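Allow me, if you will, to draw on your knowledge of protein folds for a short while. The matter concerns a single protein, recorded as an amino acid sequence and a row of backbone structure tokens. Could you please explain, in whatever detail you think fit, how the structure tokens follow from the sequence? I remain grateful for any guidance, and I place the record below:

…
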Amino acid sequence: MPHAPHARVAIAAILFGSLAACGSQQPQKAPPPPEVGIVTLQSQSVTLSTNLPGRVAAAETSEVRPQVSGIIRRRLFEEGSIVHTGQLLYQIEDAPYRAALGTAQGNLANAQATIRSTQLQADRYGRLLAIKGVSQQDADNAQAAAQQARAGVQAQRAAVDAARVNLGFTQIRAPITGRIGRSLITVGALAQTGQSDPLATIQRMNMVYVDVTESAADMLDLRQAMQAGSITRDGPGAARVQLLLPNGTTYPIEGRFEFSDVTVDPSSGSVTIRASFPNPDGLLLPGMYVRAKLVEGTRRQAILAPQQGITRDEQGNAVAMVVDAQNKVEQRKVTTEQAVGDKWVVSSGLKPGDRLIVEGLLMLKPGEQVQPRAPQQVVASSADSASGQSGN
């Protein structure tokens, strides 16, 4: 085995080289903490509002109905036009009512003529009674006849007044000023007192009401917050209402909150709220479906969190990731109330000074070390008051 020493030398060299190579390797560096975009939260005042569905209603509505029965002889208005209080709308055939008035006037004249004769007889019987020329019964009868004649005159005068009123009712006039709709009766048709259908409908629409419904639970939350002082209604804008029309545009004139109903609808659990809007151009029509934006009040010391920083866990709860003092991720369960632009009003779970993570949330875990930086896409909320709306 002459070559064995050389083989051992070669093996030793290989082993020495391997050991040297292993000793020369450097330990691998740990990856740097992931960068996250954060927003430092601050408390501020914010104006809260809510969007509610509603219907437009005319300020005044009057159904034109006949007070006496008769044939319609004339219609004296244009459908869809503006009519004024006292304007003549329909003329009912008045011949029967003129005849009735004449009869009542004749009966009144007859009763008035009877008064004089009965009174003269009562006076004569009074003088004869003094000299025992007539009995007491005859004198009493004469006096009673005179009184009955006077009562008859009063009754006939009332009959004349009733006949004159009925004659006036043959001219059907507008009870209010407003826009009149289509006529539901034609000339020559019979109009009857107590009929189910009106002749026409007049609506005053220079100012309209919008009736919206809000859940009783939301109203209780608002009132309790106002009692606690966290929401106030100070200032001239506290009662402002904006209107979103069916075509998606905003009505150019703001309305005012009028009142809320004193009872809760048992079938829906909601309360009716009424707002009034000027309607000079007649753009708002009764029965129109709209959405009203009601200003609820101003919340003091509110926390506004960018919506990018609020996510949901597996149970559907709202959660937020914040960076603590050691730059570690901490998960918080939060309660959101309503949206204010691109932010949420947070009522619990976050406080002023918290560093909310708004970027880099993907694959982030609680307790993980991170490197906070300014966000690239999300702008920190300003200290100015914002206007909020609910997702109703």
Q: What stands out?
A: Helices lie at 4-24, 95-130, 136-169, 216-228. The first strand starts at residue 35 and ends at 40. Residues 12 and 18 are 10 Å apart (CA to CA). The chain has a mean pLDDT of 82.
